[in-house]
Amino acid sequence: MSTIRVHTTQNVTLEYEVASIGERIVAAFIDNAILLAWGIAWGAFFSYVGSSGGGSQHKTDWGSVEGIIAIIIMVLLVSPYVFYHLACEVFFNGQSLGKKARHIKVMRLDGTAPRVGDYLMRWLLRLVDTGPIGLGGLVAIITIAANGRGQRLGDLAAGTTVVSTRQRPQQATPLPANLGNMAGYQVVFPQAALLADHDAATIRELVYQASARENYMLLNEVANKVKALTGIHTDLQDVPFLHTVLRDHAYLSANQ
């Protein structure tokens, strides 16, 4: 699996595994299966209503209560097919249900979480990438394979890519307790000095355990707690942020 190196605005270089074309195809298949199930469910509902005598043949008055209900039902039926990917990525932190199942997510090339505008750009170009215009996804596959950074046209326009969220083995290894002899190390977050040694030890153990178990909720809770204790404001994702804070703390403690 190919990787990309990201140099963040905090002067931290991170390496991510790019989601493979196969993983993205499987995720897309899961998403399409969900949308197909949605359509089948509505088809069964209409069939039931029709068979029970609810499907009268008179012309619908769209201004009547019956007409308004019909419009609402049509909106409920069609909206997921139009807005599914946009809504999922905005509200589920860059993941559709298919992406979540395959442990992949959308990320900006600077290592930060995409903004709503980035998701909107990816959504607008989805028709070109994976719709009829894009020959059912052929354009997306060719583009992803050609650029080497896991980007379809929507990603190129938005400055995003899709990466794997699976923890690599080395990421589950506890950080060294002392980086004071690390020549040329540059502190990213001076506020890390506010953490006590026992705080750093607890954070290190929690990061190790949560990474090994892929417990991203715990990682997010730890990151938020550290930010509250130190007053740090950053767009770095949870794991890189916690690793950087621990490195900074170890370096600052050893060089006081």
**What's the tally of helices?**
10
Instruction: Outline the low-pLDDT stretches.
Output: 169-180
Strand order of the largest sheet: 1-2
**Helix-strand makeup class:** mainly alpha
* Most strands sheet: 2 strands, antiparallel
Instruction: Please indicate the count of domains.
Output: 2
Into which percent range does the helicity of residues fall?
55-70%
Q: Helix and strand string, N-terminal first?
A: EEHHHEHHHHEHHH
**What's the shape?**
elongated
User: If you compute it from the alpha carbons, what radius of gyration comes out, rounded to the nearest whole angstrom?
Assistant: 24 Å
Strand content is 5-15%
Could you report the average pLDDT, rounded to the nearest whole number?
A: 84
Distance from N terminus to C terminus (CA atoms, Å) equals 42 Å
Count all strands and give the number. 4
Oligomerization state: single chain
Summarize the topology.
Elements: E1 3-7, E2 13-17, H1 21-51, H2 65-91, H3 97-101, E3 104-108, H4 116-124, H5 126-130, H6 138-147, H7 153-158, E4 160-164, H8 197-213, H9 216-230, H10 238-254
Antiparallel strand pairs: 1-2, 3-4
Helix pairs in contact: 1-2, 2-4, 8-9, 8-10, 9-10
Task: Provide structural commentary.
With 256 residues, the protein is mostly helical. It folds into two domains: 3-164, no CATH class; 169-254, no CATH class. Helix content is 55%, strand content 8%. The strands form two sheets. Strands 1-2 form a two-stranded antiparallel ribbon. The protein has a two-stranded antiparallel ribbon with strand order 3-4. Strand 1 (3-7) and strand 2 form a beta hairpin. Helix 2 (65-91) crosses helix 4 and helix 9 packs across helix 10 (238-254). The longest helix has 31 residues, at 21-51. The chain is elongated, with a radius of gyration of 24 Å. The two termini are 42 Å apart. Mean pLDDT is 84; it is low at 169-180.
